[in-house]
Amino acid sequence: MPKKPSAEIPYRKPRAITDRLRKQVAEELPEIARIGDTALRQKVTEAWAFALAHSSFTSIRQIPPAGNPDTNEARRGDQTDHLRGVTRLAVAIAAEMGTAYPELAIDMDVIVAGGLVHDVGKAWEFDPVNRKRWKANQRQTGRPSIRHPAFGAHICLTVGLPEEVAHIAMAHSGEGELLVRSLECMIVHQADYTFWNTLLAGGQLKPDTVPPQTRKYITDKPF
Ligand SMILES: [Fe+2]
Is the Cα torsion angle 42, 47, 51, 57 positive or negative in sign? Predict the structure, then answer.
């Protein structure tokens, strides 16, 4: 058995999930009010309250506006700007495509819920305590031990969100290439990539966080 890391894991020592925290989440993500189904609305709130209470973060605003830790980080804003922007972009795609092709029968509640929780696992992956542990014990834990899509799906299922929404957390990013995305997941995935790629092409990502495969957008050297 390898030596146990001494660092404590915030997930193992959660804070209480209070009505105050739920109210704060609802204020940080006002698009929650756009969800028609009451139970779904409450579970989206619960997912973020659960994620924060099981992390070092006390607010979604403390999570940097980045796609992955230290990668594709916006010059300004915070993670709420990303979640809200992706949700509204996904709603716009769904509205346009749903009007042109009503037979798509897009579930708008799943779009909004999925947009708001697609990155709920970032409370784990971006947690500085976790990142320090992974960096110090990479051989033992992996780095990260679990990426935000898988951890987000875990949170969604834990708080009782439907499978369709957990699937969006699981498959919105690269993991989705390994499976077949649902219609609503494909829309959120496209909205997510549109968000980052628009900032990339517009010079609004911090240059030192742009990964090698897209660095051509931020350099004037020939490629
Ligand atoms: Fe995202």
Answer: negative
